[in-house]
Amino acid sequence: MFEAIDPAKFGTLIEISALINSNYGDATSLLTQILESATRLTEGEASSLILRDRDTGKLRFEIALGPKGRDVKKFLLNPGEGIAGWVALHGRSLIVNDTDTDSRFYADISKSIGYPTYSILAVPMRVREETVGVIEILNKKQKKYFTQDDLRWLEIFSVQAALAIENARYLEKAQEEIHYLRDQVQAEKGWHNLIAKSPLILEKLDLIERVAKTDSSVLILGESGVGKELFAEQVHLRSARAAKTFVRVNCAALPEGLLESELFGHVKGAFTDAVQNRRGRFELADGGTIFLDEIGDLPLKLQAKLLRVLQQRTFERVGSSDPITVDVRIVAATNRDIEGLVERGEFRSDLYYRLNVLPLHVPPLRQRKEDIPALADFFLKKFSRETNKRFAGFTEAAMELMLSYSWPGNVRELENAVERAVVIAKESRIGARDLLLGSGAADTDEYKGKSLKEALSIFKKHFIMKGLEDNHWNQTETAKVLDIQRTYLSRLIKELDISNPKE
Q1: Residue 191 belongs to a domain
Q2: Is 183 part of a structural domain of the chain?
Q3: Which of 14, 163, 325, 419 lies in the 20 to 30 Å Cα band around 357?
């Protein structure tokens, strides 16, 4: 029985219960509130909410309150290690009012952070008979002893915390499924997710909202890998043309002869392989939007023809003199210094001015650090699903590394780094070493002079070939060892042109 009924304590319990039952959206804030209340009502000086990893059994400090809370979160506990480890392993509560006399006490953390611990109150958190973590209160104020009454109150708070965790799991799983299905629908239509948290990008999206309502040409500028195509999609999706076709053309991917036919079409007999009439991309985009990526690489001859489309909305197919009229909005993009190209006579000034009616500069990732955590989390979930591996997120060290790294390859480099980390990581959280950035990256001669994409392909090829060799080229067994889906392994083998040298 409780010593005395405290209205303040019961009021706190009722308040938190109401939040849990109202599908409180932010689980971390709710758990923090539960821990703060538990610490206050048991008169502790510091506290932690520690979660257990299902696969490894290791314990991580999800929330830590007190003067050394930030430092504590950098540590992991092995199964059974310390008072919290013992409680998690045995599923039983503990009061330790003199840590010096208890052999289960793990003093290394206290010594490392310079915070003496002389008493501990710890209770397990259970979800459906599973111990998911531990709530731990340190040092009762005025060096008093923790009591059985403190323990009973903390056990009630642990039940509330466990309910919050269970609700958060269900909500997270439901949201992941909804987002996955939405992403699948978008992917089938060719659309990409644009993740935006930074004020710089939110400002660009606000500008796009206004720009999209017009039919004026848009020129998107920015470094390689910043996601210019995604912004072009947003221009189309937020416009009155959204229900019509969005056509993509990479002007640097095809030689001049093929590019002209690709853009404007051709008639039968226009050249050797022209066995029938063919509509070009501009005709296919009639009523919608055409996205001309790498416009800075467009040959001068085609620049003149494109200028005519912009001015008169007409053109002829290759091999024909019959004019074709289209209603198309043009969105172009380049990572080149297009003004420099104009000055050197490599790009027509009249075309540049026609394209540059509404310029949009996409800042590099290093200038919008606020986007990095959200982008990294998005890519982690994407590749976790592809490889059938589950991760609890990134370690604090990994996140600090990503936030301090300059990302010369921008969002594309971040995506590649996370994919690589997902493939090689062995712990429940992606660590700094898994990212292989900066000093952690390979520096062998094989990678020198290579682009990031080429270096990543080389790394993945060696990594997968080693796995295949170790498993006698059995793809099913290799997929199990690498902890990825067999279909994903087969796709990588094909993409990376991997073959058994003995065959």
Answers
A1: no
A2: no
A3: 325
Whether residues 52 and 143 share a domain: the answer is yes
Instruction: Tell me the C-alpha distance between 390 and 383, whole Å.
Output: 10
Alpha helices in 296-364 (DSSP H): 300-312, 338-343, 349-355
Contact 205, 316 (CB under 8 A): no
Q: Please identify, among 170, 191, 210, the residue that sits at the C-terminal boundary of a domain.
A: 170
pLDDT at 73 over 90: no
Whole-number Å distance between alpha carbons of 254 and 262: 9
3-state DSSP percent of the chain in helix, strand and coil, to 5:
50, 15, 35
Amino acid symbol at 53? D
Give yes or no for a contact between 49 and 38, defined as CB atoms under 8 angstroms apart: no
Would you state the structure tokens that stand for residue 427, as one six-digit string?
């712990």
The strand ranges marked E within 388-483 are none
In this structure, the answer to whether residues 130 and 218 fall within a common structural domain is no
Amino acid at 12: T
What is the SS3 assignment for 211-271?
Answer: HCCCCCCEEEECCCCCCHHHHHHHHHHCCCCCCCCEEEEECCCCCHHHHHHHHHCECCCCC
User: Residue holding tokens 């048991």?
Assistant: 42
Give, for 130, the enclosing helix (H) or strand (E): strand 130-140
Task: State the first-to-last Cα distance of the chain, in angstroms, to the nearest integer.
Answer: 75
Chain segment 476-497, per-residue pLDDT in tens? 878 877 878 888 888 888 888 7
Phi and psi, residue 371, nearest 5°: -80, -20
> Which string of b and e fits 349-358 if b means at least 16 CB within 10 Å?
eebbebbbeb
236 or 183, which is more confident?
236
Phi, then psi, of 98 in degrees rounded to 5: -145, 95
- How many domains are there within the chain? 3
155 and 18 both lie in a single domain: yes
Same domain, 357 and 387: no
Return the pLDDT at 318: 86
Give the per-residue pLDDT at 346. 92
CATH number at residue 321: 3.40.50.300
Cα distance between residue 209 and residue 237, in whole Å: 10
Residue-number span of the structural domain to which 408 is assigned: 371-495
Question: In the structure encoding, which two tokens stand for residue 178, read together?
Answer: 């909804």
Q: Kindly report whether the global pTM for this prediction surpasses the value 0.70.
A: no
Q: Which residues are CB-contacts of 222 (< 8 A; sequence separation ≥ 6)?
A: 228, 333, 335, 361, 362, 363, 364
Q: Tokens 């099913």 correspond to what residue?
A: 476
DSSP string, 37-83: HHHHHTTEEEEEEEEE-TTT--EEEEEEESTTHHHHTT-EE-TT-HH
Q: Is 172 exposed, middle or buried (0-12, 13-18, 19+ CB in 10 A)?
A: exposed
Which position has the token pair 């304590």? 9
Rounded average pLDDT over 115-130:
90
